[in-house]
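User: Please predict the structure of the protein below. I'd like the answer in structure-token form so I can feed it into my own downstream comparison script.

Assistant: Understood. Taking the following sequence of 303 residues as input:
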Amino acid sequence: MSGICEGRVAVVTGAGRGIGREHALELARQGASVVVNDLGGGPDGTGADTSPARQVVDEILAAGGRAVVNGEDVSDWAGAERLIAHAVSEFGGLDVLVNNAGILRDRTIASMTEDEWDAVIRVHLRGTVAPTRFAAAYWRARAKETGRPTHARLINTTSASGIYGNFGQSNYGAAKGGVASFTLIAAQELASCGATANAVAPAAHTRLTEALMPEEYARNLGPEHISPVVAWLASVGSQEVTGRIFDIAGGRIGVAESWRLGPEVTRQGRWEASELGSVIPGLVAKAAPNVDMTGTVPAEAGR
């Protein structure tokens, strides 16, 4: 198998099903050797079963590619370290880390339990940070040893809930918003060793979203639409693109623009609280309206 990722080694977390599965298959089609990581839990994160990851590996091997199964829990610090070490020992290095593992435990804030909050934050945010920590250390050491840029790639998975907001997903949205911010900072820190960091915010019909997304969307929003972007970001050819978040749905690819300073007023000295009633509403009126889950301004707000 050959393509734009020929000779590269990639780790994909949460790769047993859905979007992660498509990432692993596409990276293999493009020539990468792939570590297919999946704990194999249910949509809510409970349980464990590596057979879905094994099926993905078998499919890659049958097509002539190279892949291995890894069942580490990426939200566990030691497990994440073993995952990165597995890629290096099995394939001789690591060039690409795709952090994709995730679960859902949706609940409104007033009803959410401590466990529902902690489990989602742990899998999405800690499960992104932990593998990245050990991949970054490996890339830094490789750059120092060789004296050359690593051309390594970090590709994280955020969400419209994290960058735009969505009712009933405060735990998921907070985690994914954290992933987006983490990506921006990682891009700054990894630049010194020649690595890039980007994120994708996918809209896709998978087992995690089927309860939120009508069945008719399945035809146009299959997870296979996301993976070509990930494969390109994983390639050497994407070296000049870093610190970006790509909003992808079906055949649409957009760049999500991050927080930026809007209207402002400045004075010398301290504002009095009593004065601000004539200041802050005017600033808000001049500011761009908040977007909805599509990343665009609702029609009535734009009038």
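That's the full token string. The radius of gyration is 21 Å.
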